[in-house]
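To whoever is on call:

I kicked off a structure prediction for a single chain this morning and the downstream step that reads the tokens threw a length-mismatch warning. I double-checked the sequence; it's 297 residues and nothing unusual in it as far as I can see. Pasting both halves so you can look.
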Amino acid sequence: MMNSAASVAKRIAKIKSKSGEQISIFNNPIAEEVQSKKLSEGKIWTPEHFNDDMWIAPYCVLRSALFSVVKRGKRKEYKQNAKTYEGEKIASWNGYEITMSGFQLDQADFDCLLACIEACKAQGFGDSVVVTKKQLLQLMKRTVSKDSYLWLDKSITRLVSAKIGVLSKKRKVRFFGSFLSSFIEDEQSSKFALKINYDLSKLFVDGTSYLEKKVRLSISGDLDKWLYSYIYSHDTSIKPHVVSLEKLRELCGSGSDSRRFRFKAKEALERLESKKLIAFEIKGKADSSILYASRLK
């Protein structure tokens, strides 16, 4: 029995043979259907209990400066080594070595990636999916406006342009590439044909975090979002997660000095605690402060 993708492809071929015209994926619903249903390069690795209420993200992403705390107007550009073609080394959790080239990514860019994964999950990594800009913005609960469209264009471009290298020391496996393999944009219809990098699925093997969509999207501020996602990437059911604030300052990519970061982190943690998401305690002085944090959900 012919599968749905092959059936649709046959219909397109018939139309093309009659008209002699190239069908654009953006102005023909049949072409969009085949673009979204074509066979994957391989089966997507899907974490258990992945449902519509959750975002999913690999531990190594949440425990690093890949999506960092960026001051407005202070986005850094990581350079590529001319000899090795690798990017600059960035702060990461024990067990990983991470490099990056391209413009610094922030927590809003991370929301954009999570929305892209959500839009692509039915087809799987490695397949293209046609989605409107409005749909992506709505997945992120962002206002649909001209400014939002401009921001989305830039965020998608940053995600495609950034080259990431992740070495898992435990598995001795290295991922190198972009989170988004490519995108095609149709300016007239405000649609994207997005392709998630198929190999990105392999980063989930070392550990997957499940973040409640409505919770993460209700949190404001890069540091608050980063701390929430970081803490929820650890199992605190038996004992609190323990980490120095200096280590956190490095991992989140903060440009603040130690004393200033302690003040900002304490404020952010208090806001998360007021939402009944975490419980925490900070011990020690500014240059040697230790965080004890537990998840409440």
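Update from on-call: the warning came from a stale cache, not from the record. Cleared it. Sanity check on the structure: The chain has a mean pLDDT of 84.
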